[in-house]
Design brief:
The complex is a heterodimer of chains A (111) and B (115). Chain A is mainly beta. In chain A, the strands form two sheets. In chain A, strands 1, 3, 4, 8, 9 and 10 form a six-stranded mixed beta sheet that branches. In chain A, a hairpin with a 3-residue loop joins β5 and β6. In chain A, 30% of the residues are buried. With 115 residues, chain B is mainly β. Helix content of chain B is 0%, strand content 49%. Chain B has no helices and eleven strands. In chain B, the strands form two sheets. In chain B, strands 2, 4, 5, 6, 9, 10 and 11 form a seven-stranded mixed beta sheet that branches. In chain B, strands 1-3-8-7 form a four-stranded antiparallel beta sheet, with no helix packed on it. In chain B, a hairpin with a 6-residue loop joins β7 and β8. The chains are: A mainly beta (111), B mainly beta (115). At the A-B interface, β3, β4, β8 and β9 of A face β4, β5, β9 and β10 of B.
Chain lengths: 111, 115
């Protein structure tokens, strides 16, 4: 179901390291998934998407992995930079264009 | 290329007043979505509209909330008789026309504060 939470999970990484952010989605019928980045005071910004007929998709410095067997999605960010600090949300598309967002993970970069 | 535009960016209302939030989709986009976000939470779907039609309003509260996307002009999310619990960030997203699922692009949001 849809997630509700008062405290976001936090991932802290060293600048230059790779980051892996995980997401468990809820609807086995979902066939389209998106990762968004949200900086403080801003709207979600599209990062990368993947359709269910794929298990991996790469962008610039980012890779999304989809495991439909366990309903798991991950976002890998290579060579993390200070500008990557944000909250990252996965979203699944439930038919009729409705997006259901995960809880979100706050990524902080240590210098 | 202008992205999704929302105004106002910040809105303060007293309990019982009305709030009107406006959204102009990206050029060429005919699908508009409204989402609500509470602090430290993900976005929650409210409503999906196409020009002059409400397609899915399964996330809209039954009372006080309404949305429209007229043939001309921006989409409007209207909240009547606001209460403190309506305080949140409201985001609009748009996507291009088409039968297949398309990425939704979000605006900067309107932060509503009800006193």
């Amino acid at each position: 179901g849809e997630s509700v939470g008062l405290h976001l999970p936090t991932l802290s990484v060293q600048e230059g390291d790779n980051s892996i952010i995980n997401c468990a989605y809820s609807n086995s019928a979902s066939d389209y998934f998106i990762w968004y980045k949200q900086e403080s005071g801003k709207g979600p910004q599209f990062i990368i998407d993947i359709r269910s007929n794929m298990d991996k998709r790469q962008g610039q410095r980012v890779t999304v992995l989809l495991n439909k067997t366990v309903k798991h999605l991950s976002l890998q960010i290579a060579a993390t930079q200070p500008g990557d600090s944000a909250v990252y949300f996965c979203a699944e598309n439930w038919g009729a264009q409705k997006l259901v967002f995960g809880q979100g993970t706050r990524l902080t970069i240590n210098p | 290329n202008a992205g999704v535009m929302q105004n106002p960016r910040h809105l303060v209302r007293r309990r019982g007043q009305e709030a009107r939030l406006r959204c102009s989709p990206m050029k060429g986009h005919s699908h508009v979505y409204w989402y609500r976000q509470l602090p430290e939470e993900g976005l929650k779907f409210m409503v999906y509209l196409q020009k002059e039609n409400i397609i899915d309003e399964s996330g809209m509260p039954k009372e006080r909330f309404s949305a429209e996307f007229p043939k001309e002009g921006p989409s409007i999310l209207r909240i009547q008789q606001v209460v403190r619990g309506d305080s949140a960030a409201y985001f609009c997203a748009s996507s291009p026309p088409g039968a297949s699922k398309e990425t939704q692009y979000f605006g900067p949001g309107t932060r509503l504060l009800v006193l």
